[in-house]
Design goal:
The protein is mainly alpha-helical and 210 residues long. It has two domains: 15-74, Homeodomain-like (Arc Repressor Mutant, subunit A); 80-197, Tetracycline Repressor, domain 2, CATH 1.10.357.10. Helix content is 68%, strand content 0%. It contains nine helices and no strands. The longest helix has 27 residues, at 122-148. The termini are far apart. One of its GO terms (molecular function) is DNA-binding transcription factor activity. Pfam families: TetR_C_11, TetR_N. Residues 18-78 form the HTH tetR-type domain. This is TetR/AcrR family transcriptional regulator.
Length: 210
């Protein structure tokens, strides 16, 4: 999960509605990072964003809906994939982007909170799945291109390779108190590359040549 936050004071295009949404989502992210899902209160978010409570309740209605919109916004704002020209380089860049996000003092707790929300609310769960699907779709071409270059076997599940890069990093985030560093990111990428080259992600037989 990799994302970039708008710089303080910037306003996305789109007029007042867009400004209100940006302010509310920023406030929601701050509240989640500070207090987790239990600390997400629509009235408090409205106060933080300096907008009317009626506006927040009318547009989002529930904390889960606010989390879902926050995830949609994070997917929209996420950084594009790297293009290093090699599979190890691309996947290392992906792993380091995930690592930087999860190690960030704000983003790390924020992602823990949205994952927690997804475990107990269907709307949040659907939004989280969409977020990850968007990010996998962004990075999948680097694996597909590696297959086309002959770096990986035909029939490799390209999306699964991308998932394999970030999975160990999320596991460590959620199950240990350790700080994620670049060494962990590089190791996750190297393991994914080695497994992919060994055929661990091949899920389809190579079509017979005519």
């Amino acid at each position: 999960m990799e994302s970039r936050s708008a710089d303080p004071g910037t306003v996305r295009p789109g007029g007042r509605t867009a400004r209100v949404r940006a302010a509310v989502l920023q406030a929601a992210g701050d509240a989640l990072a500070e207090g987790g899902l239990s600390g997400l209160d629509l009235a408090d978010v409205a106060r933080r964003a300096d907008v009317g409570r009626t506006t927040v309740y009318r547009r989002w209605g529930t904390p889960a809906a606010l989390v879902a919109d926050l995830l949609a916004d994070m997917a929209e704002q996420s950084l594009p994939r790297a293009r290093t020209g090699t599979l190890p380089g691309d996947l290392r860049a992906n792993a380091r982007l995930v690592q930087r996000t999860l190690a960030d003092p704000r983003q790390g707790p924020l992602f823990k909170a949205v994952i927690a929300a997804a475990t107990c609310n269907d709307e949040a769960a659907s939004a989280l799945r969409l977020f990850y699907a968007t990010r996998v779709t962004e990075w999948e071409p680097c694996v597909r291109e590696a297959v086309e270059r002959g770096e990986l076997p035909e029939g490799t599940d390209t999306r699964e390779v991308v998932r394999a890069v970030s999975a160990p990093l999320y596991y460590r985030l959620l199950t240990t108190g350790e700080v994620l560093d670049e060494a962990a990111a590089d190791r996750a990428a190297a393991v994914a590359v080695a497994a992919a080259r060994a055929g661990a992600f091949v899920t389809a037989e190579t079509p017979a040549k005519q």
